[in-house]
């Protein structure tokens, strides 16, 4: 609930025009709708592993402006140390 309230509050105050939410919970869909009503864009990153029956809420992912699956390869890549030679990551 606190995440939803903070998202809506920051969108209302125009703190940023893009928010990244890491979640799969459907109860955040309404907060995304409200943030988008304040002209904010919301990208949802969610865990995805069909072999372990791990999915995000369809309502949540379709409410967001964009969605990104976090599979095991993605999460392992995030956990390895970054080196300056790699440059900036592309989302």
Count of helices? 4
The residue ranges in which pLDDT falls below 50 over 5 or more consecutive positions are: none
Number of E-state strands: 3
Helix content: 25-40%
CATH architecture: 3-Layer(aba) Sandwich
Share of residues in strands: 15-25%
Mean of the pLDDT scores? 87
Description:
The protein is an alpha/beta fold. The protein has a single domain, classed as 3-Layer(aba) Sandwich (Rossmann fold). 37% of the residues lie in helices and 19% in strands. The chain has a 3-stranded parallel β-sheet with strand order 1-2-3. Strand 2 (41-47), helix 3 and strand 3 form a beta-alpha-beta unit. Helix 1 (2-12) runs parallel beside helix 2 (29-37). The longest helix is centred in the N-terminal third of the chain and has 11 residues, at 2-12. The chain is flat, with a radius of gyration of 15 Å. The model has no long low-confidence stretch (mean pLDDT 87).
Can you describe this structure in just a few lines?
Helix content is 37%, strand content 19%.
Keywords:
single chain; 91 residues; alpha/beta; Rossmann fold; three-stranded parallel beta sheet; 4 helices; 3 strands; 37% helix
Please render the helix and strand layout as text.
Blueprint: H1 2-12, E1 18-22, H2 29-37, E2 41-47, H3 58-63, E3 66-70, H4 72-79
Parallel strand pairs: 1-2, 2-3
Helix pairs in contact: 1-2
